[in-house]
Amino acid sequence: MNSIQSSPTVVDDSLFVGDGRGTLYAIDAETGNRRWAFESTRIRSSPTVADGTVFVGSFDHNLYAVDAETGNQQWAFETGDFIASSPTVIDSTVFVGSDDGYLYAVDAETGDQEWAFQTGGRIRSSPTVVDGTVLVGSSDGNICAVDTETGDQRWEFEIGSGVNSSPTVVDGTVFVGSADGNLYAVATGVDGSSEDSRVLLGTLGHHGDRRFANQSIDIPAHALYTSWVRNNADWLAIGGVGIGGGIGGISLIRRREDTRESKQDPPNESSGESSAMPPSETAQSTTPTDQSGTDASSRVDEFRSEAETALEMAVAAKENNLFDEAEDAYDVALTQYEAALDELDAGDAETRTKVEESIDAAHAELTALETLHEQQEEIIETLETAEHSFQVAIMAYVEGSQTLARIRFRQARDSFAEAVDIVEDSDEDLLSPPVEVSVQPDRELASTALSELPAVPEAAVASLSDAGVNEIDELEEREEPPWPPTPVETLATEETTSDRVETTLTLLSWWEDTDSHEFETAAAVSRRRDQAEYGFARSS
Hints:
elongated, four-stranded antiparallel β-sheet, 12 helices, PQQ_b-propeller_rpt, 3 domains, alpha+beta, 21 strands, PQQ_rpt_dom
């Protein structure tokens, strides 16, 4: 299992979690044994389980629905960019945000889009639903309230700094953290609490088993602060959260609740609405100061510095062919750049442009690396399949199983041809450094001594012995046609052997007596393809 950035979800006796390489795992919660694995591309989204289906987002832009028992894909819904937002499921609808800036409502059964709502920035926040309203934060610094049925906006609350924290609603108040270091409490205009929200339930519960969602919860300020800290540990590790006054340094701002009709309008902070703190504390916590501006600038510099350090690590890892480590480092760099972008003041256009350019460049490098990684994994798998078939074919021919040998030589030839295409089509040198593949034939030769092989007659053994060849590994492989080793070719010239014996000895010169075989160049793969074709033709 690669690096894990998504939170695990436990359902009954199964634990579901995704890793940085894009694999969604189902694990026995008691024993730790893997039940199944589903492959995608880089999972940062935490899985959500509802009615026997696991929903998870991936960096390949897709929202997947996977059968919780079997790991089989039920459907995939494609968005325009990465999905790091964790999905929320309610009333057979999946709500999920994407880096393309859209909040999507998707039919949980079919994977069909019900509607899409566009925000002004990428969505890493996970949606929460209350009384027919879905709320989500965006990197444009807004909390959006959207009608669950139509996708129409009900209201928008402007914070000003990026909102990657996931909101949760308790008794009509939505609590959400922001990149400005504050926790906000905003009146939603409804009376309920989050329904089936993984934010409220945390990683202990899930949509199909509401362990404590039906309780009426009185959340003190320190508990909210602790929850925010847990969900925003990366901010705390660098800049801290104690900005401004108020309870524990948290800003609590309430939206006006004077009438039901007002819920359609964007909230107005300056309209004299009530506050959860004394006026002096509210003013202190919401009024920018020179010190807070300096702190924000310092955090931006730190985020960018850490991103650049991560990029250096990514490049070094790539140069050493440590692709998993390189991808993880690029992911860290992107996270830090995005944190810097969220922290930036809207007026700092020059720095924002530079950070956005850095993000685009890092995305491009990561995409290229992932493509290279996929190609290398593909070439390794293809060459292993080919070499395995090739070695099995050799043993089958030596043991007189002509039909099996022909089948296996054909399989090897076709697989080697596929490997040649992969190498030639790639913009990178996939065989630098050399690719070492595992060789695990179904059975081994009884002996490596030519004298003990029934397929080699005594006269041929004696002639080869006179030439100093007594063991299989002493049959020197030729780099190009004609394929028979020189001592074997001499036997044919002296007419002391048959075509079958010549073929047997030629094939044995290619037999691999170790557990692996190395391919250094495209020419070596092409040569193996031609050797497999030779074996195929001679097995007819």
